[in-house]
Please model this.
Amino acid sequence: MVKKVLVIHTWGIGDMLMFTPALQLLLHEYPQMIVDFLIKQPAAADVVRACSQTGRIYYLEQGVNLFKQIWQLRSNGYDAVIVTSGTNHWKSGWLAFSISAPVTAADYQGIRSPLFSVQIARDEAVHRIDNNLKIAAGVIGHEPTVQFRPKFWLNEIAIRHAQEMLAQNKLNRNQIIIGIHCGCGSGQRYKMWPLENYKAVIRKLSSYKRNIVFLLFSGPQEQTFIRQLKAASPDNCFAVSQVPLPVTAALIQRCQLMLANDSGLGHVANGTGVPVISIFGPTDPVRIAPRGAQCLQIRAATECSPCHPHEPPKCRTGRTACMVSVTPELVIEAVKRNLFMDKEK
Model:
């Protein structure tokens, strides 16, 4: 019986959400299990913090402090240590092995590591959710019999704060609320759809339906983008910035639709049950897009896309041609089909 597990996660918000179906599978198989997390990027912890079976959350130390942290983790007596898919299995292997649990599980690419007791060959042709599920299946010892979708666990405080913010801006359920995240994280502007295209979408949809409002979400370094977008239609655009991620997720949950680049907030929308339209270019939607019946990816059929597994692309045109090739008209029609077509038939 697996009662106490440590999950090592060195990636970001979206990658954590792509692990949550595997996490739910483990919790379904072992209902009394407590899960601790060792996390490198602090924001990723907010995805699972409100889960009733989340125990302690640790943040990965560096240097001498890392050895002290390993000693502390060893003393916790874990039954299993699981490394989420996509992590370098050699770097994570010595860490998992040093914690000294009976079961250590991860996926691998290339040569297997002797430091894991459960190793699953990573398949780069399938979605990261599926690779995470294979790792979980290796731990429980059989194929999944129940399917789970990505999940962001919300807490009541975040939900209440979101309701208060909406009320302060006089937003209510009679309005069509569309969330937009035009950014994509620090240092990843090559994944951004041009701001002028987002402006065109806002203007066109605002003229199409009078009761549409937009929540413009931004990260710490994206507030300039939001100011530019808000100028496109100032009366029905509301900026959401410098807000904790759980409150952001609760606000997204109140949207009828989320429009985003390949970003963590697109996965947050999917994890809160909101339909999401994602605009993809250099990265591969087959592997990392929000997944589910209510998820749609829009991308241009450029011959060089996708080109970005791990490093920023060096586009031959001097710009990210695959993003520029996605027209506002394509996105506007996708939004209309998602929100209005069935209701107007």
In short: The chain has a mean pLDDT of 92. The first strand starts at residue 4 and ends at 9.
